[in-house]
Design a protein that fits this description.
This protein has 148 residues and is mostly helical. It has four helices and three strands; from the N terminus they run ααβαββα. It has a three-stranded antiparallel beta sheet.
């Protein structure tokens, strides 16, 4: 009889333990769900502000504006892989035939160096108006002996 009573007591304690575990698991689950929901709402708000139409259009406008200042020139000699000083001089020489007052922000070769291949040159001007003047006067290059 004592053995039976002990067994009943052990089973009773095990049931209490399982109930306690279930309530703790349920509490942890609710806490985790609420934390995930609050994190999701914070993430949603930050994404909404980051991807706001006004911000996206400003960013795209800046990219488009930057591209509006560019000109790609083909056919300039490509002597070696890292001749940036030589390239700047050559671009200035080229622009002296077209528009002497051109203000260049930077110039760079596009693509990898290959022996015997002339890589195009990307010239970025300070403003769209400078680029437009260069493009409108590009026919002056045909008059030069160097670039005709």
């Amino acid at each position: 009889k004592q053995w039976y009573q002990r067994r009943v007591r052990v089973v009773s304690l095990q049931c209490q333990l399982l109930e306690k575990r279930d309530t703790e698991i349920s509490a942890v689950q609710k806490t985790a769900e609420s934390e995930i929901q609050s994190f999701a709402s914070v993430l949603q708000k930050s994404c909404d502000s980051a991807l706001a139409p006004a911000r996206v259009s400003r960013a795209l406008g800046a990219v488009a504006e930057d591209r509006a200042n560019n000109v790609i020139v083909h056919g300039l000699c490509d002597k070696n892989e890292d001749s940036t000083e030589n390239l700047d001089e050559e671009v200035q020489c080229l622009l002296s035939y077209v528009y002497d007052g051109a203000k260049v922000l930077r110039s760079e070769r596009i693509g990898r160096f290959k022996e015997g291949v002339k890589r195009p040159v990307k010239i970025v001007f300070w403003g769209k108006d400078t680029r437009d003047k260069v493009m409108s006067r590009k026919t002056n290059l045909m008059k030069s002996k160097t670039y005709s």
